[in-house]
Amino acid sequence: MTRQHDSGLPRALVVSRNLPPLLGGMERLNLQLIRELAQSYALTVVGPTGCREHLPGGVHVVEVPTRPLAGFLCRSAVAAWKASARGFQIVIAGSGLTAPIAKLAAWRGGGKAAVYVHGLDLVARHPLYRLLWIPLLRKLDRAWANSRSTADIAARLGVAKRNISVLHPGVALPDSDDGSMGAEFREQHGLGAAKILLSVGRMTRRKGLAEFVRLALPEIRSHHPGAIFLIIGEEAIDAVDNRGEGVRAEIIRAAADAGLSHAVRFLPHCSDAQLAGAYRAADVHVFPVIALTGDIEGFGMVALEAAAHGLPTVAFATGGIPDAVADGVSGSLVAPGDYPGFAHQVLRLLDGAGSELGPGAKQFARGFSWSCFGRKLRREVEEALAQDRRQPPGREGHALLDLRSRALKARKIQAVLGLTPGNRQLRVLEIGTGSGGIAHYFGTHGSLRCEVDAIDVQDVRQVFDGFRFQTVDSVQLPFADGTFDVVISNHVIEHVGAREAQARHLAEMRRVLAPRGRGYLAVPNRWMLVEPHYRLAFLSWLPRSMRSRYLSWRRGVTVYDCEPLEAGTIERLFVDAGLCYERAVGEALKATIELEGGGYAMLNRVLLRLPGSVIDRFAAMIPTLVYRFERGDHAHGCGR
Questions:
Q1: Which is nearest to 192 in space by CA: 291, 283, 104?
Q2: Distance set, CA 453 to CA 174, 398, 442 (Å)
Q3: Which pLDDT band, with edges at 50, 70 and 90, does 462 fall under?
Q4: Rounded to whole angstroms, how far apart are CA atoms 278 and 143?
């Protein structure tokens, strides 16, 4: 057999631990990436022992034992170094774990280095990984992220945004729409006519299955007493950190505690045909992923698989899941931690809405077919090969897509503004809504009655209910004078432009604020030690003319597109805009400690005992400046 290496095709190398025979979404994705590249490139793969039999013919394969992990990395580096002696146009790391190896091989082979990042490989907390791997990620020519959330994390770790592209995973579309497969699956497993809630995938802590059984399943079973929660998959014993062990026991214990042991069923890893039967037999796919420090769901391929079979998903809108579930089209997205809302959406689908979503779910999945993925991948590779290292000027978005942090931020805003339940409905405006988490919090609050509008320069929402949304292209607000009782500008003013634009931003907020309304503004302090957008020490301390050069040197980004403010400057802008302001740094800091904890316990106790006004006097030393404001109709410049 003549290998592709002799065919005159351009040469490429893929290095990855995440390939079959290991199981999981990353493994399926990297396998398909190799299949697609093998059509256009003479391909070499350095992967785990046993991967050869799963890869296309004609691909040159070097197999390396996966355990121990350090041994895999060393052997893979040696194999990639040897292979690169003949040169490669591009070297691709299948995850962040092998990114340094890709960089080394690309350097020797004279080609470009790229990495496919999945989320977990960016948030791993191991100190050596943070110290060595993350800085090297910034040096690669291209980073393909499996979701907007993963791209956001990569950018916040300092990877230049011009080098990041979102390349969604694909899905295998069913060959047929044979409805009998579902009936056969039910009969085979003795499920009868029961309503089936399905979970598919490796059992890990972040999947939130035990929490779902404890906090949502009882409510669902109270309306559908015969409903079965069917879990297909095994514990993640092949994962790098092996955190999956013991999850099944947690689920069993949660079911026993809720008196629902008979309602939870387990099946091991299934063949593709059996899994297709399960998707067709089920009534709703549940994806109750929870946000854990150092462990996130980068995308959610199983939600796409379910959609391809016409099965809608109910999921928490965390990590990259909002890219895999189209709210109201292929399922329902619920704010993280809202188990009553999760149960409500499941019941809504069980009571008939699920059948209505089936055709839309299938259509949504077609946009993620593996053929679409292949075309996008080849285009991305071509762009990577043609790309130079220069960054064109321009502003970039900095929206934070972590919904859990947005909910905590909203609670802090509520505390700082002193918003309490009342008889009157509040009109609320959030400027720069990002993921939509803050607007959603106020719009769906259990006791506050709020009618919420939200705006942003781009639509990157991950939750959609509870508020109206529109995009804008300037600081001009598309609302009438005096419309809102509450106006929120949370880390927005530093992004609107130079000082003139910042002044207009404040003036517009005053214009739309009702005479007795109140506003919240937070802005990074110019004198913070570490600049939060690019994670560089002293970046904002430098003269404006030097900031971009420092950023280009450290991050490869030639334009610093933020304008942090110091206390004196923002307060003068308040006065010029006719706003009456009050420092709320102390209150905000104390609210953050009470809501989030963390940090140093002794220092937290001291800060909680200090009056907020005392902390306000040291605002110049605190990373974020926080203000309450209102219209200064009666006392121009009444701030303190």
A1: 283
A2: 41, 20, 10
A3: confident
A4: 35
Residue closest to 303 by CA, chosen among 251, 364, 344? 364
What residue ranges define each of the domains in the chain, with the CATH number in brackets?
A: 4-166 (3.40.50.2000), 180-368 (3.40.50.2000), 403-528+564-631 (3.40.50.150)
Residue 174 DSSP SS3: coil
Report DSSP letters for 556-568, one per residue.
S--------B-HH
Distance CA 283, CA 278 (A): 10
pTM of the predicted model, to two decimals?
0.72
Residue of 632, 617, 605, 498 whose CA lies nearest to 567: 617
Q: How many CA atoms lie within 13 A of 465 on its CB side?
A: 12
Pick from 171, 258, 160: which is nearest to 217 by CA? 258
Dist. CA 421–CA 443, nearest whole Å: 13
Kindly report, residue by residue over 264-306, the tens digit of the pLDDT.
999 988 888 899 999 999 999 999 999 887 788 899 999 999 9
Q: Is 89 helix (H, G, I), strand (E, B) or coil?
A: coil
Per-residue confidence at 103, pLDDT binned at 50, 70, 90? very high
The encoded tokens of residue 518 equal: 């109140």
Is the preceding omega at residue 268 within 30 degrees of 0, hence cis?
no
Question: Rounded to whole angstroms, how far apart are CA atoms 122 and 287?
Answer: 22
Residue 243 backbone dihedrals phi, psi, to 5 degrees: -80, -5
Cα–Cα distance, 374 to 396 (Å, whole number): 28
Retrieve residue 428's tokens. Answer: 């609320």
Give me the amino acid identity at 480.
Answer: A
- For residue 397 the two structure tokens come to 């978005």
Under the banding of pLDDT at 50, 70 and 90, the label for residue 607 is low
Tens-digit pLDDT profile for residues 382-430: 989 887 644 444 445 555 555 667 778 888 899 899 998 887 899 999 9
